[in-house]
Amino acid sequence: MAETHSLQDMRQQAAIAAKVFIQRDYTSGTVCHFQTKFPSELENRIDKQQFEETVRTLNNLYAEAEKLGGSSYLEGCLACLTAYTIFLCMETHYEKVLKKIAKFIQEQNDKIYAPRGLLLTDPIERGLRVVEVTIFEDRSLGR
Amino acid sequence: METLGHKKKTTPRRKWQVFPGRNRFYCNGRVMMARQTGVFYLTLVLIMVTSGLFFAFDCPFLASNLTPAIPVIGGVLLFFVLGMLFRASFSDPGFLPRATPDEAADLERQIDAANGPSGPGYRPPPRTREVVINGQTVKLKYCFTCKIFRPPRASHCSLCDNCVERFDHHCPWVGNCVGKRNYRFFYLFILSLSFLTVFIFAFVITHVILRSNRTGFLSTLKDSPARYPFTGENVVVCFFSVWSIVGLSGFHTYLISSNQTTNEDIKGLWSNKRAKDNYNPYSYGNILTNCCAALCGPLPPSLIDRRGFIQSVTPQPVSHSNGSSMYASTQLHTHMCDQEHCIQNTKFVFQAAATPLLHSDPVMIGGGGPPFPGKSSLGVPCAASLAPSQPSLPSSMPGLGCAGDMLSLRDPDTHCHHHHFPSPEETPLPPGPMPLTLPCAAHRGHMNPAQLYDPASQDSLHEDSVRGLVKLSSV
């Protein structure tokens, strides 16, 4: 759902060479945080800094979604008082941030990853387990 | 091409219709519960009957003699109790969706790489990963059914046949698992229910006392069954409920304040008795923060997207297309039978995945759709229609051909399905999964038999498959 028509066309036409999975990093607990280690399969496709920047921004966005603070407590208390019926009308803070993340990933795909023959899949489509990076065959190398 | 045409005729299905596991869905996927819901209905009946009797027989007296606020408060409490009960019962507790075949294959590769080469007779360590969280070493276990490494605090519920994040327990009274997403509803349910039972209990007793003040205690009791039926029943139900539910609320209040789950508490994972420096790495330090985090923290979204539509990501029009078939294979996986069959079949898949992956170049990995896409659609009724019977390991090639096809169905990424053949021969398999393969022969009309009988490639991978099997059979 985060893909544009051009990306879908690309996927249909291009052959998938490999998929790389960026796993979750649980060292800071159960918060959603992905490993920033640069996978070796992407070495000749994308700049390491660029990739790590993407993952770091993703991690920050997820941290923002799960942040415990005044606003989240207020939302929680208000919801509890209304017996959670308030969520029939408005969406939760987490859902708002998830939309932001979807937009961010689409933007990254359009600007950075698609031109390099890569495709990021939104982690929510993989149950927040992995960031899936699909590597397409590089036709320009005549493979 | 026929698969495309076939797809156009069927209406798009929602993901809940093919969701793996033992859950029930109602209202077009909006409501999800566990398979056994009998006790949930009992809970509902008990609450409704007791409250109904209270409102019908005690409230008129109390409203007129004490204050009309009593039925109002009772009504608000009842509304809250039912709301929380429905929220806890009907929502997704935090199920983790199962891994896609690509993910599972990638993990398997990583596990093999980590374990290193082994000779025959080598016993591999169990599939765990260790993570240090806030200074405590936590073991992440591999779930064979869901094919993922479980996040910390997650556990696989055998009743629902799914991994649940922050698994607390499976509550039959609520008819659902209690996990990350519905723990606060469950807690608020038992808390408000304890208030409601105490409230009803107190006011029923008050009613009896007030009445007996007027007419004498004994005559009140005599009249009571006739004029105020079931007062005794109310008292009895409330009395027992008070002790059990108030006790449960107290227990969960303790769990929340120490940020533990029932599962962790029962196992004594973070108690000092295990080790001197054992502490809970998830606790925020003080009781108030723990409570606020559990009850007022952000509500995580459902990861299973049960009302979403199943998208076949890329079309499978040509038999040798390399498009991703992840969703198609997800559909296949969901029609697996029991958990035990699942585990056995998963072992099959790993044998299959491990062997060619040791040799294949990257092109194969992400690779592609099933070599015979027609098989994918046939595999589904195949797996679903089976009745387990007493099998024997088929020694005939057609049976093995079937096994190979089943393997390739479940692991469509591995292009070279004919490599799977040595595996069934070697495996000292319990009879479980074999019957699944036998009826397949009937469906495999269009299969090219020549490819199945390829001895050359079998020999070359024989040793590796034995290696892979020795590893797996000891897990």
Structural description of this entry:
The complex is a heterodimer of chains A (143) and B (475). With 143 residues, chain A is an alpha+beta fold. Helices cover 42% and strands 13% of the residues of chain A. Chain A has helices spanning 5-13, 48-65, 70-81, 93-113; strands at 16-23, 118-121, 130-136. Chain A has a three-stranded antiparallel beta sheet with strand order 1-3-2. In chain A, a hairpin with an 8-residue loop joins β2 (118-121) and β3. The longest helix of chain A has 21 residues, at 93-113. Chain A is elongated, with a radius of gyration of 18 Å. The two termini of chain A are 30 Å apart. In chain A, 29% of the residues are buried. Chain B is mainly alpha-helical and 475 residues long. Chain B contains 19 helices and ten strands. Chain B has helices at 2-9, 38-65, 69-90, 101-115, 183-215, 217-227, 231-257, 262-267, 287-296, 326-334, 339-359, 362-365, 373-384, 397-410, 422-426, 434-437, 440-443, 449-452, 455-473; strands at residues 23-26, 31-34, 95-96, 128-133, 136-143, 148-149, 155-157, 162-164, 169-171, 176-178. In chain B, the strands form four sheets. Chain B has a three-stranded antiparallel beta sheet, with no helix packed on it. Chain B has a three-stranded antiparallel beta sheet with strand order 4-5-6. In chain B, strands 1-2 form a two-stranded antiparallel sheet. In chain B, α2 crosses α5 (183-215) and α2 (38-65) packs across α7 (231-257). Chain B starts with a helix and ends with a helix. Mean pLDDT of chain B is 70; it is low at 1-7, 314-339, 357-459 and 468-475.
